[in-house]
What we know:
The structure is a homodimer.
Chain A: E1 2-6, H1 12-25, H2 37-46, E2 50-56, E3 59-68, E4 77-84, H3 93-107, E5 112-119, H4 123-131, E6 135-146, E7 150-160
Parallel strand pairs in A: 4-5
Antiparallel strand pairs in A: 1-2, 2-3, 3-4, 5-7, 6-7
EC number (chains A, B): 2.3.-.-
Organism (chains A, B): Undibacterium danionis
Protein name (chains A, B): GNAT family N-acetyltransferase
Amino acid sequence: MLEIRLARSADFEKIWPIFHEIVSAGETYAYARDTNQDQGFQLWMTLPRQTFVIEENGEILGSYFIKTNQSGGGDHVCNCGYMVSSQARGRGVASMMFAHSQNIAKDLGYLAMQFNFVVSTNESAVRLWTQCGFDTVGRLPKAFHHPAHGLVDALIMYKWLAN
Amino acid sequence: MLEIRLARSADFEKIWPIFHEIVSAGETYAYARDTNQDQGFQLWMTLPRQTFVIEENGEILGSYFIKTNQSGGGDHVCNCGYMVSSQARGRGVASMMFAHSQNIAKDLGYLAMQFNFVVSTNESAVRLWTQCGFDTVGRLPKAFHHPAHGLVDALIMYKWLAN
C-alpha cells in the first residue's frame, strides 16, 4: 500500500540515500555531483514550496518537490523534481508521484508545469513525461555534460494544467 | 565616452531607479512588480556571479549580470540579464553590454549563454538577441502574464559561444 504525504525534515535521512545515488551519478540532474547532505537538504527540502515522500510500510520509495518556476508574471507555472529509489524502479512510483503533483499543482493554483532541464539521454524520463501529457517545447544544444556521453542536449518540457 | 566596469555595492543606488522602472512595469522581467530595493539588490547584485554597469561621465546608463544557469553537468552555460535606463534607449547600450558580457562569459570559461525567459511581446529584445546570434530554441505557451496583453508566450534563447 503506497502512500504519498508531505515530507518532514527528519525524512531527509531516508531521502538522502536516494538523492545521493542519483546526484552523484551525474547523469540526470543538474546538481553538482559532490552535493553533500546539507546542500541536498537545502535544495530538496528548503528551497521548494513543498516536498512529498511516497512510502510503503514506512519505507520511503521516492520523493518529489514542487515550486514556483518564475516570479512575477511567470508565477502561474510550477516546476517539480522527482526521485525514485533504485530498488523501487519499474513499479510506477514516478507516475504515481506525478499524478499526485498534478493535483497539488492545481490545488495551489498553478496553471501549468514546466521541466526546465530534462537530459535528452534520460529516455525513460522523456518517455514518461510525454505519456503524462508534456510537450517538448525546447531543446538546449549541448547544455548538459554527461559523464559517459559528453555534451548532450537538454529538453524543456511543458504541460498546461488548466482547462 | 561609455565605459563598462564591475558594479560596486554603492552603485545600486543609481541602478535601482532603472531596475524599479522596468520591474514595476511588469512587462519584460519575471520579477514581482512590487520588488523592493533590498530584494532588488539581492536579485541583481548578490545572487549573480558578477554585475557590471555601463556609465558615461559618471552617470549609469545600464547594468547587466552574469551567472551560471544550471549547476553540475549544466554549469558550462551562463545566463545574463540586462537593463537600460529609459533615457538611454536607442543608443546601442544593450548591444554594447552584450558584447562585453560575451567576452566576460568566455573569460569565465562558459561555452554557451542562455536566456530562460524572453517575453515574446518584447519584440525589441527578441530582435536584438537574434541579431546577436541567439537561436530561439524553445517557446513556453502562455508562461507570462503581461499586464496589458494577458497570458503570452515566453521564449528560450541560446547562443553557443565556443568555437
